[in-house]
Amino acid sequence: MTYDYQATFLAARAALKAxxxxxxxxxxxxxxxxxxxARWHGPNGLSRDVVVWCSNDYLGMGRHPDVVKAMVESARxxxxxxxxxxxxxxxxxxxxxxxxxxxxxxxKEAALVFSSxxxxxxxxxxxxxQLLPECLILSDSDNHNSMIDGVRRAGRARxxxxxxxxxxxxxxxxxxDPDRPKLVVFESVYSMDGDVSPIHAFCDLAQKYGxxxxxxxxxxxxxxxxxxxGYAEEVGAMERLDxxxxxxxxxxxxxxxxxxxxxxxIDAVRSHAQGFIFTTALPPPVAAAARAAIEHLRNSxxxxxxxxxxxxxxxxxxxxxxxxxxxxxTHIVPVMVGDAALAKLASDRLLDRHGIYVQPINYxxxxxxxxxxxxxxxxxxxxxxxxQLVEALGEVWDALDLPRGTTVLxxxxxxxxxxxxxxxxx
Length: 426
Ligand code: PLP
Fold this sequence. Notes:
Blueprint: H1 5-18, E1 27-30, E2 37-41, E3 47-52, H2 65-77, H3 93-105, E4 110-114, H4 117-131, E5 136-140, H5 145-154, E6 157-161, H6 166-175, E7 182-187, H7 199-209, E8 212-216, H8 231-234, E9 243-247, E10 257-261, H9 263-272, H10 274-277, H11 284-299, H12 302-321, E11 333-336, H13 340-354, E12 356-357, E13 360-361, E14 372-375, H14 383-400
Parallel strand pairs: 3-12, 5-6, 5-7, 7-8, 8-9
Antiparallel strand pairs: 1-2, 2-3, 4-10, 9-10, 11-14, 13-14
Helix pairs in contact: 2-11, 3-11, 4-5, 4-9, 6-7, 12-14, 13-14
Bound molecules: pyridoxal-5'-phosphate.
Pyridoxal-5'-phosphate binds at residues 116-118, 121, 144, 146, 187, 191, 216, 218, 247, 249, 257.
C-alpha cells in the first residue's frame, strides 16, 4: 500500500483546529479612494463594506496618488517585471535609484534591496555571519521569525538574550572571547507588543565589546524620525548602527525589503547572499513606487502627525472604556483577549455586527494566553471611526463577557526611549 499523503495533510489541519489556531484568512478588496474602507468578500458570494483596522499600510501610502502614479508610469514605460535576476538581466535603473535613496535615507554608504523584508533578514543575517569566521550571533528573544531563520541558516554559534535586556546582553558579550566577531541582532519597534528596544544601550555595549549591530526597522520606517528613517533616527542613533534593515511594504505601502550599511559590507552580501543572487529582482514599478513613498515621507510630516494624533485618541478612548491594551510608546495598539477561541469570536463579531475588520492574533505569532486584536490606526481613521470602533469593542466585550481593565506587560517597561505618543496632557 502506498503512503496516504492526503491523510497526513488532513491530520495536520485537524490538529490546528483542535488547538483553536487554524488560521482563517479574510478576503478583502482594498479601495484606493475610500481607505481605510474595503470590500469584504465572504462565503456564498456575500460582500459588504468594512473598516480595516489592522493594516500594516500604516500611513496609507499604498494608495497615495504620487506612489500610484510612479508605479503606473514605470510599468507603462519600462515593464511590469525586472526581466531576470540582478546578475543576469534584472539590474534595473529603478532599483539602483531606490538603493541610492535608501542609503541616503539611513546615512549609510550603500543599500541592497531584497524580494521582501523577510528575505532580507533571512538572507542578510545568514550571509553576514557566515562571512565572519567563528561569528557569535547574539539575538533578542522576541526577534521576528525571519531573523530567527537568518540566525539558524548562518550555522554559527548563537546566544539568545532576554527581550530588550541590556544587562543580559552584556553578560553574554562579556563571556565571549574578545577577539571573536560578534553580531547583535534586534528590532527597533516590536510589532506585536509595540514596545521599543534600548538602541543606545545596545550600541554602547556593541562598542564596548567590539560587536556589529543589526537592527530590524520594519515597523518603524516611514513613521519615526523627522525624515521617516525609523526609530533609530527618532532617538538619534542611526549612525551608531552598522546594519539597518527595513521593509518597503508597511510604512511605505509597497513591497520589498532592504539592508543599508558600509559599501564593503553591502558588496560582500551582494556577492554571497543566495536569497539575493538566485531570484528575480524587484519589479521596476515596485521600486519606483517605493522610492516615491520614501521621498514623500522624507519631506512630509502630516502623515506621521495624523497617525500620532489618531493613535493617541484611540488609546485614550480605549482606556476610558476599560478595554485592556498593552501600554507602549508606539502606533501599535494590542487589545488583549488572552484566549484563542475568544479572540476569534471577538474578531468575527466585530466583522458581522459592526463592519469592522481586525484579525485575531494567535500562537505562534504571540505566546499562548496573550491572544489579541492588534489594531493599527492610520491618519485616515477619522475621529468618528475611532468612536465607532470603541463602541463596537464595548459591545463585543459585554457580549463575550471579556475582562475589562488596563494591561501593562512587564516587557514593555524595558523601553527606554521617550514615548512619541504621550498620554493626554503628557
Ligand atoms: N521583520 C519584522 C519584525 C516583521 O514583523 C516582518 C513582517 O511582518 C518582517 C520582518 C518581514 O517583512 P516583509 O513583510 O517585508 O516580508
